Amino acid sequence: MEEKRRLSGKEKFAFGIGAVGKDMVYMLSASYVLYYFQDILGVSAWAMGVILLVARIFDAFNDPIMGVIVAKTKSRWGKFRPWLFIGTVTNAVVLVLMFSAPPTLSGGGLVAYAAVTYILWGTTYTIMDIPFWSMIPAFTDGGKEREKMSALGRSCAGVGSALITVVTVIAVAALGKMIAGADAASKEIERVGFKYFSIGVAILFVVFIVITCLCLKEKSTVSMETASVKDMFRALLKNDQAMVTVLTVVIVNSAIYITSNLLIYFFKYDVAGDAWRDNYTLFNTFGGAVQILSMMILFPLLRKAASTLKIFFISVLSCIAGLTLLLGFTLIGNGAMWQFLIAGFFVFAGFGMFNVALTIFLADTVDYGEYKNRRRDESVIFSMQTFVVKLASGIAAFIASICLSIFSISSDENAVASVSSGSVIGLRMTMTVIPLVLLVIAVFIFKNKYKLNESRLAEISDELKSRAATK
Predict the structure, then answer these.
(1) DSSP letter string over 39-58?
(2) What region, left, alpha or beta, does residue 410 occupy, with left being phi > 0 and alpha being psi -120 to 50 degrees?
(3) Cβ atoms of 114 and 55 closer than 8 Å
(4) SS3 272
(5) Cβ atoms 452, 242 nearer than 8 A
(6) Residues 6+ apart with CB under 8 A from 128
(7) CB within 8 A of 66, min separation 6: which ones?
C-alpha cells in the first residue's frame, strides 16, 4: 500500500463542491417529489407513498450491488471517478424528466410515470453517491484527517441542501410566472416552475461533479477485496457496529424527514395566508444557515472539548428539544414566526451535527470491520449510507402520505379553505409526535449498542498498523 499524503486545498475544494451539487439534487427530490406529484399534479397520496417506499426497497438490492461493482472496477481513471461521472450525468437527466411530467398524463399513466422516473432517479443516484462517499476512508488515514474530510463533505452537502430548501419555493413561483404567465392557474405556475428549476439544478450538478472528477485524483491503492453480494451481506452482518450505525441513521433521518416532508403543507395550510411562501422561505433560510454553521463551526468547536460520541447525543437531544418546542407552539395555536424559528434552531443545529458525527462513525466502522473480519469494505459499508438515507426518505414520505390521505390535505384553487381544523391538528401531531418517538428510540439503541469510543478506536488503529507493518 502506498503512503498516503494529505489532501491539497484544490482537492478539498473539488470534493466539497461535488458534495454541494449532489445534495442539491438529493434535497430537491427528497423534499419536493411528493409535493410535486401529489399537491400539484393530483396523484393520490397513497399511491405516492407506495411508490416512494417500494423504490427504497428496490434500493436494498441495488445499493450493495453497486458497492461490489465499485470495488471490482479497474480503469485508468481509478475505481471511483468513472462511476461518479456516469451516475451524475444519468441522474441529472432523470431528475429533469421526473419534474417534467407531460401535462396530458392523468390517472394510471401519471402514476406509472411517477413510479418509473423516481425508481430510475434512485438507481442513478446510487451509481454516483456510493463512489463519492467511498473516497473518504480510501483517501484518508484515521483520526483527525478522516474527521476533517467527513466534516468537509457533510458541511458542503449541507450547503447544497440548504440552498434548495431556501430558494425552491420562491424560484419555482418566479420561473413559473415568467414562463407560464402571471395570470396562469397556480398549479400550472408551479408545474412549469419545477420543470425549469430542475433543469438549472441538473446543470449545476453536472458542472460541480465534473470539477470533482478532474481535480480529485485517486492516490490510494487500498486493497478492496471483491466478493459476491451474498458475501457482502454476510460481512455487514458480521460488522455489528456498522449495523448499529446504519440502524441509527435510518431512524433519525426518518424522524427528521417526516417533519421536513410535511413542513411545506404546514406553512401552506396551517400557518397559511398569502405570505405562506415567504414564511416557508424564511424558516428554511434560517434553518439552512443554522445547519451549515453547526457543521462548519459548532461541531469543530464542540469537538475540541468533547468526543464525537458525546456530540452525537448532544445533536439528537437538540433535535428532540426543537420538536418538543414546535409541538408546544402548535398546540397553543399558530404562534409567531419567532417561535417557529427558535424550535427550528434546535432541530437544524442538531441535525447538522448529527450528519457529521454519523459519517465519522460509519468511516470508523470500516476500520472496525477490517480489524474484526480482516477485510476492508469501504464501498460496501458506504453503500449502506446511500441506501439507509434513501430508505429513511421513503419511510418518511410514506408516513407523510398517510397523513395527507387520512386528514384529506390536498390542493385546489381554494385549498386553504378546504382544510378542516381537525386536519390541521392531525398534520401538527404527525410532524412532531412521531419524529419525537423515533428519536428517543434511536438514542436508546445507539447508547446501548455502539461501542467504538476513542480508546477502542485507538486500539484498533494500532492493531491495523501492526498488521500492515508485518506484511
Answers:
(1) IIS---HHHHHHHHHHHHHH
(2) beta
(3) no
(4) coil
(5) no
(6) 22, 83, 84, 86, 87, 88, 91, 209
(7) 83, 126, 127, 130, 379, 383, 386
- Please name the residue that has the C-alpha cell 405556475: 189
Considering Cα of 130, then 132, then 137, then 142, what sign does the dihedral take? negative
pTM for the model: 0.77
DSSP 423-435: HHHHHHHHTTHHH
* Spatial separation of the C-alpha atoms in residues 243 and 384, rounded to whole Å: 9
Query: What whole-number distance in Å separates Cα of residue 112 and Cα of residue 99?
Result: 14
Q: How many other CB atoms are found less than 10 A from the CB of residue 174?
A: 14
Neighbours of 93 (CB within 10 A): 15
End-to-end CA distance of the chain: 10
pLDDT digits (tens, 9 = 90+) for 219-267: 554 544 444 556 656 667 788 888 888 889 889 999 998 998 888 888 8
The grid coordinates of residue 74 equal 479497474
C-alpha cell at 314: 448532544
Dig out the grid coordinates for 451 from the structure. 461501542
Residue 162: closest CA among 252, 278, 293: 293
C-alpha cell of residue 264: 411545506
Cα separations in angstroms, 72 against 65, 80, 227:
11, 10, 9
- DSSP class per residue in 336-361: -HHHHHHHHHHHHHHHHHHHHHHHHH
Low-confidence spans in the chain with pLDDT less than 70: 1-7, 60-61, 64, 136-147, 150-151, 218-235, 272, 333-335, 378-380, 382-386, 410-419, 471
Instruction: Please enumerate in sequence order all residues whose Cβ is within 8 A of that of 141, keeping only pairs 6 or more positions apart, or say none.
Output: 4
Whether the CB-CB separation of 160 and 21 falls below 8 Å is answered with yes
